[in-house]
Amino acid sequence: MGFADVAMGPASFLSEFYTSFWWIPAGVLAAALAIKLPTIIRLWTDPLLRAVGGLLLLACAVFVFVAPSTIVWVNRVTGVPNISAPWVYSLLTAFCGSCLVLIIAWRDGLPEHSASTRRATRWVVTVYGGVIVALWVLFALADVPVERTRDLDTYYAGTPFMREEILLYLLAHTTAALITSKLIWNWIRTDGLDAWLRWGLKFLGVGYALNLAFDAAKLTAVVARWTGNDLDWLSLNVAPALACLSAVSIAVGFILPHAGQYLHERWRIRRAHRRLRPLYRLMRTVHGAGVPLVLRASAELRLTRRETFIRDVLLPLARRTDERLRKRSYVAALGLGFPPERARALAAAVVILDAVEGGGNPECGEGRDGGHDPDTTDLLREIGAVSRALRHPDVIREVRARAVTPEDTVAPEDTVAVTE
Fold first, then answer.
1. Is residue 229 located within the same domain as residue 288?
2. Does residue 140 lie in a domain region?
3. To the nearest whole percent, how much of the chain has pLDDT over 90?
4. Is 243 found in the same domain as 288?
5. Do residues 266 and 331 share a domain?
6. Per-residue pLDDT tens over the stretch 278-300
Protein backbone atom coordinates (compact mmCIF):
# COMPACT_ATOMS: atom_id res chain seq x y z
CA MET A 1 0.00 0.00 0.00
CA GLY A 2 1.08 3.56 -0.65
CA PHE A 3 1.87 4.63 2.89
CA ALA A 4 3.03 1.13 3.68
CA ASP A 5 5.34 0.73 0.75
CA VAL A 6 8.31 -1.51 1.45
CA ALA A 7 11.28 -1.77 -0.84
CA MET A 8 12.06 -5.22 -2.18
CA GLY A 9 15.78 -4.96 -2.76
CA PRO A 10 17.93 -7.60 -4.39
CA ALA A 11 18.92 -9.02 -1.04
CA SER A 12 16.32 -11.02 0.85
CA PHE A 13 17.34 -9.55 4.20
CA LEU A 14 16.30 -6.09 2.95
CA SER A 15 12.85 -7.42 2.22
CA GLU A 16 12.60 -8.91 5.65
CA PHE A 17 13.75 -5.64 7.20
CA TYR A 18 11.06 -3.61 5.46
CA THR A 19 8.41 -6.18 6.33
CA SER A 20 8.94 -5.40 10.03
CA PHE A 21 9.97 -1.77 9.43
CA TRP A 22 6.63 -0.31 10.43
CA TRP A 23 6.54 -2.03 13.81
CA ILE A 24 9.49 0.10 15.00
CA PRO A 25 7.62 3.43 15.14
CA ALA A 26 4.49 1.62 16.34
CA GLY A 27 6.48 0.33 19.33
CA VAL A 28 7.96 3.78 20.03
CA LEU A 29 4.53 5.42 19.89
CA ALA A 30 3.05 2.71 22.11
CA ALA A 31 5.83 3.34 24.63
CA ALA A 32 5.09 7.08 24.53
CA LEU A 33 1.41 6.38 25.13
CA ALA A 34 2.26 4.06 28.04
CA ILE A 35 4.43 6.78 29.61
CA LYS A 36 1.66 9.38 29.31
CA LEU A 37 -1.19 7.04 30.27
CA PRO A 38 -0.88 7.28 34.11
CA THR A 39 -1.01 11.08 33.92
CA ILE A 40 -3.91 10.98 31.46
CA ILE A 41 -5.89 8.68 33.76
CA ARG A 42 -5.04 10.69 36.88
CA LEU A 43 -5.96 14.01 35.21
CA TRP A 44 -8.72 12.71 32.96
CA THR A 45 -10.65 15.99 33.17
CA ASP A 46 -7.82 17.80 31.38
CA PRO A 47 -8.89 17.95 27.69
CA LEU A 48 -5.35 18.59 26.45
CA LEU A 49 -4.04 15.43 28.09
CA ARG A 50 -6.93 13.43 26.62
CA ALA A 51 -6.13 14.93 23.22
CA VAL A 52 -2.46 13.92 23.50
CA GLY A 53 -3.51 10.39 24.43
CA GLY A 54 -5.91 10.20 21.50
CA LEU A 55 -3.31 11.53 19.10
CA LEU A 56 -0.68 9.02 20.20
CA LEU A 57 -3.26 6.23 19.94
CA LEU A 58 -4.14 7.33 16.39
CA ALA A 59 -0.47 7.51 15.40
CA CYS A 60 0.15 4.05 16.80
CA ALA A 61 -2.89 2.71 14.91
CA VAL A 62 -1.56 4.19 11.65
CA PHE A 63 1.69 2.26 11.91
CA VAL A 64 -0.03 -0.92 13.05
CA PHE A 65 -2.45 -0.97 10.13
CA VAL A 66 0.14 0.19 7.60
CA ALA A 67 2.32 -2.88 8.19
CA PRO A 68 2.10 -5.21 5.15
CA SER A 69 1.04 -8.17 7.31
CA THR A 70 -1.84 -6.14 8.78
CA ILE A 71 -2.85 -4.90 5.33
CA VAL A 72 -3.15 -8.46 4.07
CA TRP A 73 -5.13 -9.47 7.17
CA VAL A 74 -7.63 -6.60 6.83
CA ASN A 75 -8.13 -7.29 3.13
CA ARG A 76 -8.73 -11.00 3.81
CA VAL A 77 -11.13 -10.41 6.71
CA THR A 78 -13.26 -7.92 4.77
CA GLY A 79 -12.97 -9.76 1.47
CA VAL A 80 -12.38 -6.46 -0.35
CA PRO A 81 -9.04 -6.08 -2.17
CA ASN A 82 -7.15 -2.97 -1.06
CA ILE A 83 -9.78 -1.82 1.42
CA SER A 84 -6.87 -1.13 3.73
CA ALA A 85 -6.10 1.88 1.53
CA PRO A 86 -9.04 4.11 2.56
CA TRP A 87 -8.80 2.76 6.11
CA VAL A 88 -5.12 3.72 6.52
CA TYR A 89 -5.64 6.99 4.66
CA SER A 90 -8.53 7.79 7.00
CA LEU A 91 -6.45 7.05 10.08
CA LEU A 92 -3.64 9.21 8.72
CA THR A 93 -6.05 12.05 7.92
CA ALA A 94 -7.62 11.83 11.38
CA PHE A 95 -4.12 11.95 12.87
CA CYS A 96 -3.31 15.06 10.84
CA GLY A 97 -6.49 16.79 11.99
CA SER A 98 -5.84 15.79 15.60
CA CYS A 99 -2.34 17.27 15.42
CA LEU A 100 -3.73 20.58 14.20
CA VAL A 101 -6.44 20.68 16.88
CA LEU A 102 -3.99 19.79 19.63
CA ILE A 103 -1.36 22.35 18.63
CA ILE A 104 -3.99 25.09 18.31
CA ALA A 105 -5.48 24.28 21.72
CA TRP A 106 -2.06 23.72 23.34
CA ARG A 107 -0.71 27.05 22.10
CA ASP A 108 -3.80 29.22 22.58
CA GLY A 109 -5.24 27.61 25.70
CA LEU A 110 -8.28 25.45 26.29
CA PRO A 111 -10.95 25.62 23.57
CA GLU A 112 -13.63 26.89 25.96
CA HIS A 113 -11.46 29.89 26.83
CA SER A 114 -11.00 31.23 23.28
CA ALA A 115 -13.58 31.89 20.62
CA SER A 116 -10.91 31.87 17.90
CA THR A 117 -9.65 28.50 19.14
CA ARG A 118 -13.18 27.08 19.00
CA ARG A 119 -13.64 28.36 15.45
CA ALA A 120 -10.31 26.94 14.33
CA THR A 121 -11.12 23.59 15.96
CA ARG A 122 -14.53 23.40 14.24
CA TRP A 123 -12.92 24.30 10.92
CA VAL A 124 -10.29 21.56 11.22
CA VAL A 125 -12.83 18.93 12.31
CA THR A 126 -15.18 19.86 9.47
CA VAL A 127 -12.54 19.92 6.74
CA TYR A 128 -10.72 16.76 7.74
CA GLY A 129 -13.96 14.94 8.47
CA GLY A 130 -15.04 15.82 4.94
CA VAL A 131 -11.74 14.54 3.56
CA ILE A 132 -12.27 11.18 5.27
CA VAL A 133 -15.76 10.87 3.78
CA ALA A 134 -14.40 11.77 0.33
CA LEU A 135 -11.69 9.11 0.64
CA TRP A 136 -14.27 6.38 1.09
CA VAL A 137 -16.49 7.70 -1.70
CA LEU A 138 -13.56 7.79 -4.13
CA PHE A 139 -12.51 4.28 -3.15
CA ALA A 140 -16.06 3.02 -3.77
CA LEU A 141 -15.95 4.56 -7.26
CA ALA A 142 -12.47 3.29 -8.12
CA ASP A 143 -11.68 -0.04 -9.77
CA VAL A 144 -8.72 -1.55 -7.88
CA PRO A 145 -9.05 -5.35 -8.17
CA VAL A 146 -5.34 -6.22 -7.84
CA GLU A 147 -4.15 -6.26 -4.22
CA ARG A 148 -1.03 -4.17 -3.71
CA THR A 149 0.44 -4.26 -0.22
CA ARG A 150 3.65 -2.38 -0.96
CA ASP A 151 3.30 -0.09 -3.99
CA LEU A 152 -0.36 0.88 -4.21
CA ASP A 153 0.33 4.64 -4.53
CA THR A 154 2.47 4.29 -7.63
CA TYR A 155 0.71 1.21 -9.08
CA TYR A 156 -2.70 2.95 -9.13
CA ALA A 157 -1.33 6.49 -9.65
CA GLY A 158 -3.14 6.78 -13.00
CA THR A 159 -6.35 4.90 -12.12
CA PRO A 160 -9.52 7.07 -12.18
CA PHE A 161 -10.85 7.99 -8.71
CA MET A 162 -8.00 6.12 -7.03
CA ARG A 163 -5.69 8.72 -8.51
CA GLU A 164 -7.78 11.44 -6.91
CA GLU A 165 -7.88 9.56 -3.60
CA ILE A 166 -4.11 9.23 -3.45
CA LEU A 167 -3.67 12.91 -4.30
CA LEU A 168 -6.33 13.95 -1.76
CA TYR A 169 -4.77 12.15 1.19
CA LEU A 170 -1.29 13.43 0.31
CA LEU A 171 -2.50 17.02 -0.04
CA ALA A 172 -4.45 16.79 3.23
CA HIS A 173 -1.38 15.39 4.96
CA THR A 174 0.90 18.04 3.44
CA THR A 175 -1.43 20.88 4.40
CA ALA A 176 -1.69 19.69 8.01
CA ALA A 177 2.08 19.21 8.26
CA LEU A 178 2.74 22.69 6.85
CA ILE A 179 0.31 24.45 9.18
CA THR A 180 1.34 22.43 12.24
CA SER A 181 5.03 22.98 11.52
CA LYS A 182 4.52 26.73 11.14
CA LEU A 183 2.55 26.95 14.40
CA ILE A 184 5.20 24.95 16.25
CA TRP A 185 8.19 26.97 15.03
CA ASN A 186 6.38 30.25 15.72
CA TRP A 187 5.66 28.97 19.23
CA ILE A 188 9.29 27.96 19.78
CA ARG A 189 10.39 31.54 19.10
CA THR A 190 8.16 32.99 21.84
CA ASP A 191 9.71 34.04 25.16
CA GLY A 192 9.10 32.48 28.56
CA LEU A 193 8.83 28.84 27.48
CA ASP A 194 9.89 26.12 29.89
CA ALA A 195 13.14 24.54 28.69
CA TRP A 196 11.62 21.04 28.52
CA LEU A 197 8.61 22.34 26.57
CA ARG A 198 10.90 24.17 24.15
CA TRP A 199 12.93 21.00 23.47
CA GLY A 200 9.73 19.00 23.07
CA LEU A 201 8.48 21.51 20.52
CA LYS A 202 11.79 21.30 18.65
CA PHE A 203 11.42 17.53 18.33
CA LEU A 204 7.83 18.02 17.15
CA GLY A 205 9.04 20.59 14.62
CA VAL A 206 11.63 18.15 13.28
CA GLY A 207 9.00 15.41 13.14
CA TYR A 208 6.60 17.48 11.07
CA ALA A 209 9.44 18.67 8.81
CA LEU A 210 10.16 14.99 8.14
CA ASN A 211 6.47 14.53 7.40
CA LEU A 212 6.80 17.18 4.70
CA ALA A 213 9.79 15.33 3.27
CA PHE A 214 7.69 12.13 3.28
CA ASP A 215 4.94 13.92 1.33
CA ALA A 216 7.49 15.31 -1.13
CA ALA A 217 8.89 11.85 -1.79
CA LYS A 218 5.43 10.35 -2.30
CA LEU A 219 4.15 13.16 -4.52
CA THR A 220 7.29 13.10 -6.63
CA ALA A 221 6.94 9.35 -7.22
CA VAL A 222 3.22 9.70 -8.09
CA VAL A 223 3.75 12.67 -10.44
CA ALA A 224 6.60 10.78 -12.11
CA ARG A 225 4.16 7.96 -12.92
CA TRP A 226 1.81 10.52 -14.48
CA THR A 227 4.59 11.72 -16.78
CA GLY A 228 5.69 8.23 -17.74
CA ASN A 229 8.79 8.14 -15.52
CA ASP A 230 9.72 5.68 -12.80
CA LEU A 231 10.78 7.14 -9.45
CA ASP A 232 9.11 4.42 -7.40
CA TRP A 233 12.21 4.08 -5.22
CA LEU A 234 11.24 7.36 -3.54
CA SER A 235 7.97 5.81 -2.44
CA LEU A 236 9.40 2.38 -1.72
CA ASN A 237 12.69 3.25 0.01
CA VAL A 238 12.85 6.90 1.09
CA ALA A 239 9.30 7.58 2.26
CA PRO A 240 9.12 4.68 4.77
CA ALA A 241 12.38 5.73 6.42
CA LEU A 242 11.18 9.35 6.67
CA ALA A 243 7.85 8.22 8.16
CA CYS A 244 9.64 6.13 10.78
CA LEU A 245 11.98 8.95 11.79
CA SER A 246 9.06 11.38 11.89
CA ALA A 247 7.05 9.13 14.19
CA VAL A 248 9.96 8.71 16.59
CA SER A 249 10.63 12.45 16.67
CA ILE A 250 6.96 13.29 17.26
CA ALA A 251 6.70 10.69 20.03
CA VAL A 252 9.77 12.15 21.75
CA GLY A 253 8.35 15.64 21.32
CA PHE A 254 5.15 14.74 23.15
CA ILE A 255 6.73 12.82 26.02
CA LEU A 256 9.83 14.98 26.58
CA PRO A 257 8.13 17.90 28.40
CA HIS A 258 6.30 15.56 30.77
CA ALA A 259 9.13 13.07 31.29
CA GLY A 260 11.77 15.79 31.55
CA GLN A 261 9.87 17.78 34.15
CA TYR A 262 9.10 14.61 36.10
CA LEU A 263 12.72 13.42 36.11
CA HIS A 264 13.98 16.91 36.95
CA GLU A 265 11.64 17.10 39.93
CA ARG A 266 12.71 13.63 41.12
CA TRP A 267 16.37 14.65 40.77
CA ARG A 268 15.77 17.90 42.68
CA ILE A 269 14.08 16.08 45.56
CA ARG A 270 16.76 13.40 45.81
CA ARG A 271 19.50 16.01 45.68
CA ALA A 272 17.83 18.01 48.46
CA HIS A 273 17.51 14.83 50.53
CA ARG A 274 21.18 13.98 49.98
CA ARG A 275 22.35 17.51 50.80
CA LEU A 276 20.64 17.36 54.19
CA ARG A 277 22.66 14.27 55.19
CA PRO A 278 25.47 16.09 57.12
CA LEU A 279 23.06 18.09 59.27
CA TYR A 280 20.81 15.06 59.70
CA ARG A 281 23.72 12.98 60.99
CA LEU A 282 24.71 15.76 63.38
CA MET A 283 21.17 15.99 64.73
CA ARG A 284 21.12 12.23 65.24
CA THR A 285 24.06 12.58 67.64
CA VAL A 286 21.89 14.96 69.67
CA HIS A 287 18.64 13.01 69.50
CA GLY A 288 20.15 9.54 69.65
CA ALA A 289 18.02 8.13 66.82
CA GLY A 290 17.03 9.11 63.31
CA VAL A 291 13.96 8.87 61.11
CA PRO A 292 12.49 5.34 61.08
CA LEU A 293 13.09 3.57 57.76
CA VAL A 294 9.97 3.15 55.60
CA LEU A 295 10.82 1.07 52.54
CA ARG A 296 7.83 2.11 50.44
CA ALA A 297 7.97 5.81 51.29
CA SER A 298 8.08 8.17 48.31
CA ALA A 299 11.01 10.50 47.71
CA GLU A 300 8.85 13.47 48.70
CA LEU A 301 7.85 11.83 51.97
CA ARG A 302 11.44 10.90 52.82
CA LEU A 303 12.55 14.49 52.22
CA THR A 304 9.71 15.87 54.34
CA ARG A 305 10.43 13.45 57.18
CA ARG A 306 14.14 14.33 57.16
CA GLU A 307 13.41 18.08 57.14
CA THR A 308 10.90 17.71 59.97
CA PHE A 309 13.31 15.63 62.07
CA ILE A 310 16.13 18.15 61.61
CA ARG A 311 13.93 21.11 62.57
CA ASP A 312 12.44 19.32 65.56
CA VAL A 313 15.89 18.55 66.99
CA LEU A 314 17.45 21.82 65.90
CA LEU A 315 14.82 24.14 67.40
CA PRO A 316 15.60 23.61 71.12
CA LEU A 317 19.31 23.39 70.34
CA ALA A 318 19.33 26.62 68.32
CA ARG A 319 17.71 28.53 71.19
CA ARG A 320 20.83 27.86 73.27
CA THR A 321 23.38 28.97 70.69
CA ASP A 322 25.82 31.80 71.35
CA GLU A 323 24.58 34.77 69.36
CA ARG A 324 27.82 36.71 69.81
CA LEU A 325 29.80 33.75 68.45
CA ARG A 326 27.49 33.63 65.47
CA LYS A 327 28.06 37.33 64.71
CA ARG A 328 31.83 36.98 65.05
CA SER A 329 31.77 33.86 62.86
CA TYR A 330 29.79 35.73 60.23
CA VAL A 331 32.34 38.56 60.19
CA ALA A 332 35.18 36.03 60.06
CA ALA A 333 33.60 34.24 57.09
CA LEU A 334 33.17 37.53 55.27
CA GLY A 335 36.80 38.29 56.02
CA LEU A 336 37.78 35.01 54.41
CA GLY A 337 36.15 36.16 51.19
CA PHE A 338 32.84 34.28 51.32
CA PRO A 339 29.66 35.98 50.07
CA PRO A 340 27.05 36.97 52.70
CA GLU A 341 24.75 33.99 52.11
CA ARG A 342 27.59 31.51 52.40
CA ALA A 343 29.00 33.38 55.41
CA ARG A 344 25.65 33.13 57.22
CA ALA A 345 25.54 29.37 56.63
CA LEU A 346 29.10 28.94 57.92
CA ALA A 347 28.36 31.05 61.00
CA ALA A 348 25.25 28.97 61.72
CA ALA A 349 27.26 25.75 61.35
CA VAL A 350 29.86 27.08 63.85
CA VAL A 351 27.31 27.90 66.55
CA ILE A 352 25.39 24.64 66.04
CA LEU A 353 28.56 22.61 66.42
CA ASP A 354 29.42 24.71 69.47
CA ALA A 355 26.03 23.97 70.99
CA VAL A 356 26.31 20.25 70.20
CA GLU A 357 29.75 20.09 71.79
CA GLY A 358 28.30 21.85 74.84
CA GLY A 359 25.89 18.95 75.18
CA GLY A 360 22.85 21.12 74.72
CA ASN A 361 23.56 22.66 78.11
CA PRO A 362 21.75 25.96 78.79
CA GLU A 363 24.99 27.35 80.23
CA CYS A 364 26.66 27.20 76.82
CA GLY A 365 24.60 30.20 75.79
CA GLU A 366 25.23 32.48 78.77
CA GLY A 367 27.18 34.90 76.63
CA ARG A 368 24.19 35.84 74.42
CA ASP A 369 23.26 39.46 74.11
CA GLY A 370 20.88 40.51 76.83
CA GLY A 371 20.16 36.92 77.80
CA HIS A 372 17.45 36.68 75.12
CA ASP A 373 16.91 33.69 72.87
CA PRO A 374 18.30 34.23 69.38
CA ASP A 375 15.97 34.43 66.37
CA THR A 376 15.91 30.89 64.92
CA THR A 377 13.63 31.65 61.95
CA ASP A 378 16.39 32.04 59.37
CA LEU A 379 18.32 29.07 60.72
CA LEU A 380 15.36 26.71 60.51
CA ARG A 381 14.53 27.95 57.02
CA GLU A 382 18.08 27.61 55.68
CA ILE A 383 18.85 24.09 56.87
CA GLY A 384 19.94 23.11 53.35
CA ALA A 385 22.64 25.81 53.24
CA VAL A 386 23.82 24.94 56.78
CA SER A 387 24.02 21.25 55.87
CA ARG A 388 26.12 22.05 52.79
CA ALA A 389 28.44 24.13 54.99
CA LEU A 390 28.96 21.12 57.26
CA ARG A 391 30.46 19.24 54.31
CA HIS A 392 33.58 21.41 54.69
CA PRO A 393 34.85 20.90 58.26
CA ASP A 394 38.24 22.48 57.48
CA VAL A 395 36.58 25.73 56.48
CA ILE A 396 34.35 25.68 59.58
CA ARG A 397 37.39 25.15 61.80
CA GLU A 398 39.14 28.12 60.23
CA VAL A 399 36.09 30.36 60.63
CA ARG A 400 35.67 29.22 64.22
CA ALA A 401 39.34 29.82 65.01
CA ARG A 402 39.09 33.38 63.73
CA ALA A 403 35.76 33.96 65.48
CA VAL A 404 37.06 33.06 68.94
CA THR A 405 39.94 35.53 68.48
CA PRO A 406 38.17 38.55 67.01
CA GLU A 407 41.22 40.76 67.51
CA ASP A 408 43.04 38.84 64.76
CA THR A 409 43.13 40.52 61.38
CA VAL A 410 42.65 38.67 58.14
CA ALA A 411 45.43 39.08 55.64
CA PRO A 412 44.58 38.88 51.95
CA GLU A 413 46.89 35.91 51.49
CA ASP A 414 44.87 33.95 54.05
CA THR A 415 41.65 34.22 52.06
CA VAL A 416 40.20 30.89 50.94
CA ALA A 417 37.42 29.93 48.59
CA VAL A 418 35.14 26.95 48.78
CA THR A 419 33.54 25.29 45.81
CA GLU A 420 30.86 22.69 46.16
1. no
2. yes
3. 18
4. no
5. no
6. 888 888 888 777 666 665 667 78
Comparing 146 with 67, the larger pLDDT belongs to 146
Instruction: Return d(Cα 338, Cα 85) in angstroms, integer.
Output: 71
pLDDT in tens, 246-275: 888 887 887 788 778 778 888 888 888 888
Judge if pTM exceeds 0.85.
Answer: no
Of 247, 272, 297, the domain-final residue:
272
Residue 7: other Cβ atoms inside 10 A: 20
**b/e string for 276-288 if b means 16 or more Cβ within 10 A?**
bebbbebbeeeee
pLDDT for the residue numbered 417 = 35
pLDDT in tens, 15-60: 444 555 666 777 777 777 777 777 777 767 766 777 777 778 888 8
Q: How far apart are CA 113 and CA 109, in angstroms?
A: 7
Render pLDDT for 84-140 as a digit per residue (tens, 0 to 9).
999 999 998 998 888 888 877 776 654 445 677 778 888 888 999 999 999 999 999
Query: Do 374 and 368 contact (CB within 8 A), yes or no?
Result: yes
CATH of the domain at 203: 1.20.1070
- If one counts the domains in the chain, the total is 2
- Residue 26 burial class via C-beta count within 10 angstroms: exposed 0-12, middle 13-18, buried 19 and up: buried
CA angle 135, 141, 147 (to 5 degrees): 80
The rounded distance, in Å, linking the Cα atoms of 281 and 419 is 22
Question: How far, in Å, CA of 250 to CA of 242, rounded?
Answer: 12
Residues 25 and 118 in one domain: yes
pLDDT (tens digit, 9 = 90+) per residue, 371-406? 455 556 667 778 888 888 888 888 888 888 888 754
